[in-house]
Amino acid sequence: MPSYASSCGVRRNSLPYRLETRLAEDSSDESPASPTSSDSSDDEEDLNRRIQPYWPKYQHAFRSRGFRLETVRDVKNYYRQKGASSLDMLGSQQQLSSRVDFRDDDALCPDAGFPDNLFRGIRLCDSRRVVVKAVHRRSHEMMIIRALSQPPLRDEPTNHTIPVLDLFEVVDDDIAFIVMEEWSSQLISSTGPCCLNRFLAALRQCIEHAAFLHKHGIAHLDISLSNLLTDYEGHYAYIDYELSRCFNSPGTAVRNYRGTEVPPECEKEGEANPFKIDVWALAVLMLRACKLTGYWVPELMQVIEPMLDQDPCRRPSSKEVLISFDRVISSLGYHIGPVCTKLQS
């Protein structure tokens, strides 16, 4: 991006040494897996644990609602469309051979990279690819996703939850299914890094969604790059509300927190402010995103540093973070938006 390399202090691959060291110490090449929930009561833990449904049992239910769970035939067609060689297809088949009979084109074909509570599927009316998540029907995640994906919260422009196409319950099994659009976890496309315009827009969407959640008393409690998806059209969305909670009062605290990004106050036993946990995690997400894309705007540290304060009481609210971000970006003369500047030239 030559047009940005020398403007307003933008640097590529130039994080401050102290922050670079911090990220290197607690990260690997792969994003850490999302943690499991840790709740104070056995009943609470049982409701919010990851479940392992027997997916074939629910095929008819999905078809009756206009969806199809992915089959061996779908996977074979996918590889053919991608131009994969027979050797590539054979390797993929061998990877799943213990779980799938590839001689039966109609057999369900779970994705080897997914946990047991996720399954790929297809919407019948337009062949749109979807991802289905199975949860306990009385779980926190189901309650929160239901609220976020229905009016009035669904219609708020600051809500950047992954689009949910359907929600339904199987009462007899105490199970519920969340049918989502399939977006990509690969935040940078294979064609190369996004432009700075879109990168800054992505950061703003991340901050804006945290502020939206907090305004409605919801703490995500697992903000991380691994829980951020994109549609490659300038839109970014949060997923994975397994640890998320609703709080009726701002003074509510959480105990024994063990999310992906753990702030210092949670490294020892005791209570912590869930919203300040999110602010810390959001700062780490921003730093990791800068490192991943190679974009670094030094002035962003005016926003990020206060978010990483060792004392959570001194950290800004997510709303204050959004105001600070907008002020810094405006002072640098950027006009950010979802349209890639590569496409405008």
Automatic annotation (TrEMBL):
Which UniProt keyword terms apply here?
ATP-binding, Kinase, Nucleotide-binding, Transferase
Q: Does the keyword Nucleotide-binding apply?
A: yes
Domain Protein kinase span(s) in chain numbering: 76-329
Single GO molecular function: ATP binding
Q: Which domain of life is it from?
A: Eukaryota
Chain spans, region Disordered: 19-47
Q: Does the keyword Hydrolase apply?
A: no
Q: Which InterPro entries match?
A: Kinase-like_dom_sf, Prot_kinase_dom
| Positions with biased composition (Low complexity) | 30-39
Pfam families per record? Pkinase
Name this protein carries in UniProt = Protein kinase domain-containing protein
According to its UniProt entry, this protein's organism is Psilocybe cf. subviscida
Source lineage: Eukaryota, Fungi, Dikarya, Basidiomycota, Agaricomycotina
